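Give me C-alpha cells for this 227-residue protein.
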Amino acid sequence: MPSAQLLRLTEAIQAAGENNLAKIIILKSAGDRTFCAGASFDELASIKDFEDGQRFFMGFANVINAMRKCPKFIIGRIQGKAVGGGVGLAAATDYCIATNQASVKLSELAVGIGPFVVGPAVERKMGTSAFTQLAINATEWQSAAWAKEKGLYQEVFPTIEEMDACISALAKKLVYSNPDAMQELKQVSWQGTEHWDALLPARAAISGRLVLSDFTKKAIEAFKLKS
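Here you go.
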C-alpha cells in the first residue's frame, strides 16, 4: 500500500467514526487472492533520509491508531493473503473474518527491517509467542487455520461467499445494538493501549533508521528483482 492510500484509509476511518449514520465499519480490499501485500517497495527504495523514513512508516501507524481510537466496531474481511502491514491491519480490527486463502506472513526482517510498527497490534491480538514466530520466521507463510488458532481471525470459511454471508449477518445484528454499549465495549477491549500515540511513532523511527542501512537497501533491491 502506498503512503497516499494509507492516508486516505486513515481519513476514511476517522470520518466514519465521527459519522452518526455509520454504525459498523467493514475493512476490506478488492480482488480474491490478496488482502494486503504490505508497504510499497518502490517507496521504500526511494527513502533518502531519516525524516522521510519515519514519515513513511507512520502510514501504517496512523491507520492502526485511527482504528484503535475509532468509536465504532471494525470488522475485518480478509479474503486472501496478508503480508507485513496487512497483518497489522487485520490485527487492529475488532472482529476479523477470513477465508482459507488468508494466510499470513510478517516479511519485514527478510528485507532488513522488522515488524516494529505493526508489532504491538499483532502481539495484542495473537500473543507474544505467535508474534515472535511470525517476526523471526519471516519468509514462511502461516495458514489461515493457524491464524485462527492464534486469535488473529475469529472465523474462517472455505469460500468468499460464506465469509461474506457471515459478515453480513454479524453486521446486521450489530446495527441494532446499543451504540453507547458498543463504544464502551471497544474502549474496554483496547484498554492498555493508550500509550500507542507515542509508541508507534517511536517504532516508526526504528524502521526509519534501519531502512537507510546498506544491508536493507540491498535486500529491498534484491526483493524487487525477484518479484
